[in-house]
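Box 3.1 A note on notation
Throughout this textbook, protein chains are presented in two layers. The first layer is the amino acid sequence; the second is a token string describing backbone geometry. Keep the layers aligned when reading.
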Amino acid sequence: MVLQNYETVAQRLERFWTDHPSGRVSTELLDGGSGYWIFKARIYAKAGDENPISTGHAHEVIGASQINKTSALEVCETSAVGRALALAGYHGSQIASLDEITRAKARAQDPGPITTPQPQPIRPPVEEPQHGQDASITKISVKKYLKLISDAATVGELMQAAEVIANDKTLEDFQKDLLRGNWANRKIQILEATKV
């Protein structure tokens, strides 16, 4: 991964304001408060424009990294702005910002567990062991987690699925990476389907 291919959100904003001194950037908190935040950012070429030239979304789990233990809300808003700017053409050779990549690397090195409170998490079905079967086989499989993700119809249901997956201590890192990728893709599909 070549970090010079990534720009910070501040660099993107600076270029945007140079090109559009009368532009506007707006953010909206879509959901949050139960262990996560979801923001939407809109970029307007002119302050009075009704339609944005681009939008961007971001999701952050409170406590998912060292910075998210204290500043998940701010990080989420900044990420949404960075993605909206990238989709408006203000990026290096990558959509993700340098800020996002740096946080992702820090998250990968953070040995602390990720725990987020959820009032009533979904309880996935557990298979009953068959005669002679090891008890660990009764744990929900990655295939069932993939189904849980694909069956989510709203961002709230998707967040509940994430909580269930995060609480499964038997998953290997490569399995978590696979599930994260599917989760992110499903989130994009849900957000695109609800876009106005």
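The mean pLDDT is 74. Helices lie at 9-19, 68-87, 98-109, 142-151, 155-166, 173-194.
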